[in-house]
Amino acid sequence: LRLEPLAAALAFAAICTLDARAQDEEKLTSGPGAGLTAQKCQICHELAHVTRSRLSRGEWTDTVRLMRERGAPLSDAEIEVILAYLAAYYARDPAPAPAPDTLAPAR
Ligand code: HEC
Which of 10, 22, 56, 69 is the most exposed place for a label (fewest CB within 10 A)? Predict the structure, then answer.
């Protein structure tokens, strides 16, 4: 098994994915709640504010509350749907895989 072609293919796929993301900042990833989120979150600004963000659920909660304070017309039930959607599809990257601790021990 030679890994170079595989690595090259993966790198190419990653670049294409990044490119597609950059071009599609105004479209939300399809998923439960995407329609409601798009409808509510582009009343005042571009959806790119959402698609560029990668936040934890707690951070999304703070952000959506702030948007409501800014005047976003959101019921509590709608906020629940939107938070579940954002926390699933626009979450922070997962933690890296466990690795050996290569840092020198403290003296
Ligand atoms: C009532 C108007 C309004 C609505 C509706 C609204 N926002 Fe915002 N949002 C703002 C304003 C004002 C800003 C700051 C100015 C700007 O960057 O456009 C902002 C900025 C943001 C930012 C950038 C960070 C920040 O705080 O400046 C994010 C992320 C964001 N909004 C997410 C959302 C999400 C998610 C929704 C849907 C739940 C939403 N917004 C709906 C008014 C709104």
Answer: 69
